[in-house]
Design goal:
Helices cover about 40% and strands about 20% of the residues. It is an alpha+beta fold.
Length: about 120
């Protein structure tokens, strides 16, 4: 991965979280930062996920990473295949936002532990 792409990738999560925070100004919630061994990211609650969907923040995923990202989906997701899926970042966020309690987690991950990808996204509802 080129240095420029790494910089873009490192800025993608804070930029998305910032966009959601600005668009959702006035709400009492804020994206929840998380970190662990080999990863750092944010978890958006349902309200934040809805706002991210409304502003098409999911498009940033594909703009920054193309198809080079991994995704974890609930088994009842329309995009769940058990393997590779054609879901776009925008479809991923939109689907989570459409479910009661739907939320997303966005993570920068050590590629050595993430199938060679630096970005991972998870949804739940």
């Amino acid at each position: 991965m080129t240095r420029a792409l790494k910089i873009v990738a490192a800025l993608a999560i804070p930029a998305a979280a910032g966009a959601v925070a600005i668009a959702g100004a006035g709400s009492a919630s804020a994206a929840t930062p998380v970190s662990g061994n080999g990863y750092v990211g944010v978890i958006l609650d349902h309200h934040e996920t809805v706002v991210a969907s409304q502003i098409n923040a999911g498009n940033l995923i594909n703009a920054a990473f193309g198809d080079a990202w991994t995704v974890g989906l609930p088994h009842d997701s329309v995009w769940y295949t058990g393997a590779w899926t054609p879901v776009t970042g925008d479809q991923f966020v939109d689907e989570a936002a459409s479910h009661p309690g739907g939320r997303v987690g966005l993570y920068l991950v050590d590629p050595a532990i993430n199938q060679g990808n630096i970005f991972n996204a998870e949804s739940a509802w």
